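Figure S7 source data.
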Amino acid sequence: MSEFDVTDVVDAPEGEEETPVPVVAVVGRPNVGKSSLVNRIIRRREAVVEDVPGVTRDRVAYDAEWQDIPFTLVDTGGWETSVSGLAAMVARQAEYAAQTADVVLFVVDATVGITDADAAVTRVLRKTNKPVVLAANKVDGQMQESDALELWNLGVGEPYTISALHGRGTGDLLDAVVEAFPEKPEPVIDQDEEAGPPRIALVGRPNVGKSSLLNRVAEEDRVVVDSVAGTTRDSVDELIDLGGKTWKFIDTAGIRRRYRALQGADYYATMRTGQALERAEVAVVLMDVSEPLAEQDIRVVEQVVEAGRGLVLAFNKWDVLDDERRYYLEKEIDRQLSRVSWAPRVNVSALTGRHMEKLVPAIETSLAGWNQRISTGQLNNWIKELVAATPPPVRGGKQPKILFATQAGARPPHFILFTTGFLEDNYRRFIERRLREDFGFEGSPVHISMRIRE
Ligand code: GDP
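Tokens for the predicted guanosine-5'-diphosphate complex:
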């Protein structure tokens, strides 16, 4: 097993990590009908490309589903390898597939029978612990049905006879594929909370103006206090109407003066920020522009990023900003907040109400970025172009390859790159930067992990 071990997830998001959807890799020698099968499964025609060795497909991975179960379908036909000889090349592709996939869909041509390349693939697959589902393709009639019996000799289980071209038998095949998926733990999501209004944590060190801002946004008569049972004893959320929409401000008890007097400001600043972030979707980090940015401000921002929440940077007390202070503030922001240059910024005054109306659009931007998803097909097209223009740097004499990529989840967006080698941090940062340039993800942290075999 160790030879095929997959080094999992670098930079995994903290907290509620989503289990990525299962990956199914389609392997087999050229001309057995892998592309036709892929197209049959994703019910699209666009991917049909000649099944010829060395021909790189436009795309390698797709979103697919069967019986409402989503999975990622990977066509290995386009993975170029430098190994000479058909059997060796196909075996190598099968090896990659077995390393990166949860289930291997092994396609053979029933009208031809077992070839050397098929046998080579079988040897590779038998060495792995990955479930293999065997598809005997091009079975269009009763005659070939009996031919397929020979394929039991491969020793990878029952051959599912199919016709990728006509769709025959693919339902049973997909049942077997889905049956082989690893068991997924049920996600622990508070359904009521998920369905309710968007949840905002208003955070920041003491005295930046959180309480004042809350009073400003919440004309008192419209605030509904919402006691949350089962959380911190004195935690209180408030439903506040803003910009024509209702929002849930998390743990406002910790912010409002009358409660805070009971706890002490420092207690709130440290303990409660984390608790509020846990339940929030997006965090508004409030900072006080009348003073230099403090280490504690930066720490709160980092806490939001680590918690994987949407982020809005709100600069308060703008009413007291003079030209000189403004000059230094810009420098401080450049120097200390460049890591979160993707976060929307609003310059407000809780005192005068300046730019309060800009808060809601900023929050909505962050929420949208946090929820954003791109399709596997689109992502892989994009990755292919990116890597062609700027390949990953050579490491230890080897050029790591990105075989394919999927977005494992959103809230925040999390991508997994399936690679043949380690990608340096700065290359992953480069990918993140380009992802943001081309797709947005404004206001949200983005996680990029790798599954590699070094
Ligand atoms: P919190 O600890 O973050 O909740 O901060 P508070 O809301 O208690 O505010 C701390 C101090 O800053 C108070 O004296 C407020 O009156 C003052 N303050 C809050 N917002 C503004 C603002 O926009 N402009 C000015 N000049 N002062 C503000």
